[in-house]
Design a protein that fits this description.
The structure is a single chain. The chain has 448 residues and is mainly alpha-helical. The chain folds into 3 domains: 101 residues, Glucose permease domain IIB (Gyrase A, domain 2), CATH 3.30.1360.60; 108 residues; 157 residues, no CATH class. Helices cover 67% and strands 6% of the residues. It has 18 helices and 6 strands. Strands 1-2-4-3 form a 4-stranded antiparallel sheet. Helix 11 runs antiparallel to helix 12 and helix 14 crosses helix 16. The two termini are 17 Å apart.
Length: 448
């Protein structure tokens, strides 16, 4: 029994339930999920798959069977599946083409746009976390030694902590061009044009241009346009001239269009978002936080939360903090409280084991194992988690807790917020409310 939960055993059990190793068309994985595409989906025993030891949940999306295993374990199991099947992780054979066609039919333009935006910012998350933690540690040191910030070491730490935001527009420009079908370095060049310090010396219509106006919102709009223009130009420019003429046309045309029209538009949008967030949270206070915190988990289920990432990034860059992130992080805390209520109430040993394995990463801000392995399948505890998130969000809004960086959630976010004690109070409130609501609502305890 001691070895019943090893990556090899889990991989073999999964393969048995999905119709054998020869039924696997491709293997991939993300932070928490093993993603497989099957040659014959009807051969899979999905109910049996949910009962495999170590499997926390099952999601079908875009022609993929996504098996929730949790951080760490998913990597090991994916490698074992790859070894058993003879496929490289991520390898796709011809049988997956039909699956991709089905996926394309099911995707809406709006959701595709959100996925593109998400793909632009996801590669930046390690930098947000690293630089944000440096800033958080520096703030702790300064509380005990105010003069440390003026020391050479302190100044270097300030530079390191701020570096992701200093170069954010450039990073977003490069990644956005990749996603929008343009040349990455042309995207970076467009972002550099928008942030060039000499813009302040240029006056148009009696007003000086503002370097970096509109933040990442303006960069996304401008790079989307420059990438579209680049694709159009390449179609008509002879191949022998493409290397010289296409970049020239793109930077000249897109550069003037960006500075005269698109950057001002991005500035208006960015300013409007900032004003709307501040007004909603300061005006609505706890009530606004209650609504936002309580509805975030359903938003995650639809994938619409991906569109919030550039908003967080823009708020941090333009105002120094995002008031939204701590509020929305309370949804994960409510999830933890709900899971603890299930743990206390259930008599199902397998469910208890799932909760014990998923709770640590849930506390650290990775909520998928708890969502798909515990609260969502049971129904009412998912509602309890939303209630917990609502009460936690109300506390965050009432105390005006802001995050100075992003990439972390759960308890670690306390290192990146403006009011760590207020954040921890909100977390405890979300835990408690999620627990009480889920315990009171109850659930149908699954049979062993």
């Amino acid at each position: 029994m001691a070895n019943s939960n090893t990556p090899r055993v889990i991989a073999e059990a999964i393969l048995e339930k999905v119709g054998g190793k020869n039924n696997i068309a491709s293997v991939a994985y993300c932070m928490t999920r093993l993603r497989v595409v099957l040659k014959d989906g009807s051969s899979a025993d999905k109910e049996g798959l949910k009962k495999v030891e170590g499997v926390m949940g099952l999601v079908e999306q875009g022609g993929q069977l996504q098996i929730v295993l949790g951080p760490g374990r998913v990597t090991k199991v994916a490698n074992e599946v790859g070894e058993i099947t003879g496929l490289k992780v991520g390898e796709v054979d011809e049988a997956t083409v039909r699956k991709e066609e089905i996926k394309a039919k099911n995707n809406t333009p709006f959701k595709n746009l959100l996925k593109k935006i998400s793909s632009i910012f996801i590669p930046l998350i390690p930098a947000f976390i690293g630089c944000g933690l440096v800033t958080g540690i520096l703030n702790i040191i300064i509380k005990f030694d105010a003069g440390f910030a003026a020391s050479p070491t302190g100044k270097i730490l300030v530079i390191i902590g701020n570096s992701i935001f200093w170069g954010l527009n450039l990073f977003v420009g490069v990644n956005a061009a990749k996603e929008f079908g343009g040349s990455p370095m042309l995207g970076g060049a467009m972002a550099a044009i928008l942030t060039h310090p000499n813009l302040s010396t240029v006056t148009i219509g009696g007003k000086a241009l503002v370097p970096g106006r509109g933040g990442v919102i303006a960069v996304l709009i401008v790079v989307a346009f420059s990438s579209w223009l680049e694709r159009k130009v390449r179609k008509v420019i002879p191949e022998i001239l493409d290397l010289f003429v296409t970049p020239l046309i793109v930077v000249l045309v897109a550069g003037f269009v960006a500075l005269l029209a698109l950057q001002p538009l991005g500035g208006v949008i960015s300013d409007s978002i900032g004003t709307a967030v501040k007004t909603a949270i300061s005006g609505g206070g706890a009530f606004t936080g209650f609504i936002l915190g309580g509805t975030f988990l359903p938003l995650v289920m639809t994938g619409l939360h991906q569109g919030l990432t550039p908003i967080h990034a823009d708020l941090i860059k333009t105002t120094g903090q995002t008031l939204l992130l701590p509020i929305l992080a309370m949804a994960g805390a409510g999830q933890v409280g709900a899971a603890i209520a299930v743990l206390v109430k259930t008599k199902n040993q397998r469910l208890k084991k799932t909760i014990w394995s998923a709770l640590p990463v849930g506390i650290l801000g990775v909520g998928e194992p708890l969502i798909y392995g515990v609260t969502l399948p049971l129904g009412k505890p998912f509602l309890g988690a939303c209630i917990g998130g609502a009460f936690g969000g109300a506390v965050m809004a009432a105390l005006a807790v802001g995050a100075k960086s992003m990439g972390l959630s759960g308890l670690p976010l306390a290192l990146l917020v403006t009011k760590p004690l207020g954040y921890l109070i909100g977390v405890v409130v979300a835990y408690a409310a999620g627990f009480i609501a889920s315990y009171a609502l109850g659930f149908e305890d699954p049979q062993e």
